[in-house]
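In this section we walk through a basic example: taking a raw amino acid sequence and producing a predicted 3D structure, encoded as discrete structure tokens. The instruction is simple. Fold the sequence below.
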Amino acid sequence: MTDGMSRRVCVIGGGSSGLTSIKSCLDEGLEPTCFESSDDIGGLWRFKENPEADRASIYHSVIINTSKEMMCFSDFPIPAHFPNYMHNSLIMDYFRMYAEHFQLTKHIRFQIRVLQVKPRPDFSRSGQWDVETENKKGEKEKHIFDAVMICIGHHCHPNLPLHDFPGIDKFKGQYFHSRDYKTAEEWRGKRVVVIGIGNSGGDIAVELSRVTKQVFLSTRRGAWILNRVGQQGVPMDFQLNRVLKMAQSVLPFGLVCRLGENKINQRFNHSLYSLQPKHRLFSQHPTVNDELPNRILSGTVQVKPNIRRLQGSSIEFDDGTVEDNIDLVVFATGYNFSFPFLPSNMLPVSGNKANLYKYMFPPGLERPTLVVIGLVQPLGAIMPISEMQARWATRVFKGLNKLPSMDCMLKDIKHKEETIAKRYVTSQRHTIQVDYIDYMDQIAYQVGARPSLLGLLLRDPGVWLCVLLGPCTPYQYRLRGPGQWDGARQAILTTWDRMAGALKTRPSDIPEPKQSSLPLTLTVGAAALALGYYWNIHNHPSLLITLDPTTWQDKIKPYLPVLW
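The resulting token sequence is shown next.
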């Protein structure tokens, strides 16, 4: 990019990743133009009765499985009255609020499809791109951009492995991919098989089981089932904090899995319900479903092994059992991703794998002016991750942050692949798997926005306690550095108020019960504090003078109730 000139950035896609990419460009003084092939924002979360080719599509009842405090953009909290787990229509409402507040829509050109993105002849010097687009009338247009942000997600191309199901070509019933499922009513009184026990497969099986004669849920491996509703009714992802992440990093993987599995089995015995897999809890992307155990218990959903063959309207499973008169098979078998507008040799995809540094930057480019945003499968929410990626990418475009050498990037990519192969079962869904806190911290470190626990301990112990023991909310990444937001501190301190505000919809004079004991996280946190304090005073004796225990205790007392 040439200094002194307006730097134009092409953003491909107007979903959640595209919206936050536009905003990040504006925050850094760049000039974004977003091309969205449909007539509206929202991407995956915009429900349409009829799926569009090469576009994500959801069913009418979809509710997100990450809570609002964990999925919001870091400088725009979701309103307190919104439910903790939102229906897709409310997610769209939030996106519209976000777009209106930051005036993003005027930078989006709707019903424009990107046909081709290729480096200009002088790319090694300019880093610029030729972009060809087509509108709904078929009229084509050529543009020149200084950088490109690809924000098309990874739920566009359904994976339909029909070759793995002998007899499907002669099956007398109907079959389709889960992206084509919309509502259950038309299958009332029918017998249905759902293949796949990911989040979509579980949700669709539960919904169909309310109206069908019988649902059979076919799974090769089984799955560990998590709840949206966590301990004491708090959103499950509120329990995922930095202290627990620290414990995970130092304890043996097998022990961490066993502790989690024992906790999950206290709700219902996975082996008894024919769900328990051979793999460990943290070796597969989890399935979140509060209702599935109830449907299995009531018999409306039966868990079955993999399908061996289909014969007419009958289906034989690997255990030799046969179910007759099957009317519908739903393939909840995931998605493939690709970049059809790029030169084939620039970013090839094989087995749902693409060589990208930090899942963002192609390592072989002479100029780092192409980035992929949101191509991750997090154990957590995608929206804050896409936002953090966009914050880093725009600073790289401006030359404020530098990428490492190509050799270093390739080594990082290889290390990540080896880590995934060692931890996870082999699956297309695990090729882009990331842990939320680890990955957010990695990218935030590049930006200069990773929260400083030691600095917070010294300057603001109340916020430090919330950051350490509370949910790892996106606001933590606006406390310092580029993009610092003045409202971040207050947003962190009021996180639990917004969570509770959506639940307290009936006036009550009954006082809330007092806790009889400290939560486990507080106990672990006290131990972490003791160890951290011990390490610091031995490595930084000056802290003995700076950190007066009595003063620190007085500062922290008002914030203790926030934790439970």
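Looking at the output, two observations stand out. Residues 14 and 41 are 5 Å apart (CA to CA). Residues 515-521, 533-550, 560-564 have pLDDT under 50 and may be disordered. In the next section we compare this with other chains.
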